[in-house]
Amino acid sequence: MRYTWLGHASVRLEIGDQVLLIDPWEGGPTFPKDRRAEAIRGATAILVTHGHNDHVMGVADLAKELGVKTYSMVELADMLGQDGVNTVGFNKGGTVGIGNVSVTMVAATHSSSYTHEDGIRTYTGGEVGYMIEGEGRCVYVSGDTDVMADMGIWNEIHAPDVGILCAGGFYTMNMKRAGFAAKRFFDFKTVIPYHYKTFPALEQNADALKAALPGVTVHDPDVMVPIDL
Fold it and tell me: Which helix (H) or strand (E) holds 211?
């Protein structure tokens, strides 16, 4: 498995026979525009966690360019489908197969809508995270969320050994709260924070997360620097 951070909440995850792009926000200030071709090369599917512009803006054009399906909450899939995207809309607790990789949608606690250029907002269903299983392992991608007691149930069912956790604070849980969630509800061997460093309001390093998780490998990744998991 290989993880590559594309800035903000954008992730490239190579697992099994798949290259998954998760919330690939090309318009983000930390997206590696000069390395775009490398960032999206070989992508086989796109997962979207919710409808906020910093997660879904530009996804329709990217999916059509790559000729891949997008996977998301049903209402968000309907919106993307109106733009001519090949979509798979499913819901919390549902599982889809993508090649030899299994993806289960789980709840998050946040909000979800898309703001169009004219200011009108579209309802895009609930906010979610994903349990991604392949190569005999499981990766939890939290999406935008705060701590949830449900996380303990998911650990019993899926036993993820890697946690990719939003941890920037302000809009989501911060490093301290992400550390609490990881320690209280999971048995991660590796934790990677995301949704941080993008704006001044967000956390700029993973120090508090590392302090909360002794004995766990906690990365403070750089954009476009792959991490083998």
Answer: helix 207-212
Residues 6+ apart with CB under 8 A from 145: 108, 109, 110, 127, 129, 166, 172, 173
Structural contact between residues 51 and 26, judged by C-beta atoms closer than 8 angstroms? no
- β pairing state of 87-90 and 190-194: unpaired
Look up residue 93 and give its two tokens: 């607790």
* pLDDT tens column, 106-115: 999 999 999 9
Phi, psi for residue 90 in degrees, rounded to 5: -135, -165
Q: What is the pLDDT of residue 161?
A: 98
List the chain residues with pLDDT less than 70: none
pTM: 0.98
Tens of pLDDT, residues 175-200: 999 999 999 999 999 999 999 999 99
Please report, as a single letter, which amino acid is at residue 28.
Answer: G
Q: Can you list the domains of the chain with their CATH numbers? A: 2-220 (3.60.15.10)
The tokens describing 44, both together, are 């086989």
- As given in the structure block, the two tokens for residue 2 are 């290989």
Distance CA 67, CA 77 (A): 16
Strand order in the sheet with 217-218: 95-98, 101-107, 128-134, 137-141, 162-166, 190-194, 217-218
